[in-house]
Sequence to fold (236 residues):
Amino acid sequence: MLKLEALSVFYGGIHALRGIDMEVPDGKIITLIGANGAGKSTMLNSIVGLVKPASGTITWDGGDITRGDPRDIVSRGLVLIPEGRHVFPNLTVDENLTLGAYSRNDKAGIKKDRERCFELFPRLKERIHQHAGTLSGGEQQMLAVARGLMSSPKILMLDEPSLGLAPLVSKMIFDIIQEINKNGTTILLIEQNAHAALEISDYAYVLETGIITMQNTGAVLLKDDNIRKAYLGEGQ
Fold:
């Protein structure tokens, strides 16, 4: 289990997270929703060691990773797919996938995971020698997810995976996220498409200006009037 306790983070002079308590149980899909600037991305960056907390603790699999090195955190199985995809545009699809496995040396496992990525995203196999910068936005998001999977994550953290995608492509990405979870990978998801995210979530948290204001199962939050008005565009 990934656990955040009384986590406080300052980012760019702003008190971005204020005493956050959150749990991500093994094998579940956990979603974090909230407006822009609520602190969602800061939370993910804190978990993977890119931003150091001012106070509080982050524990994973029984160990304290609060101020861990990002490389060590990735090697322990916590992998972040950042907002905006951030594929390597001048490298091919194949080279991007190879870099995703940079911390591994199990050749058989790497080969198996590469084939699994092509099963999930057959379009990537068709474009294996194509430069990532020439792919469509949807294809780049597929590549970003596949590259993350090449690290063999225990927890896959996704920051706005549907951002800027056409509805059909977005639905496919959410379907793939569920498939990845069914295969045993825990998911921590940040997503502005709150309806789609809550539909697939086992549990969800609502973050407002650095504070968790609500939490419950995805199904319960989908029916909550305040959530429907604030994040689902209903009742306005």
Q: What stands out?
A: The chain has a mean pLDDT of 94.
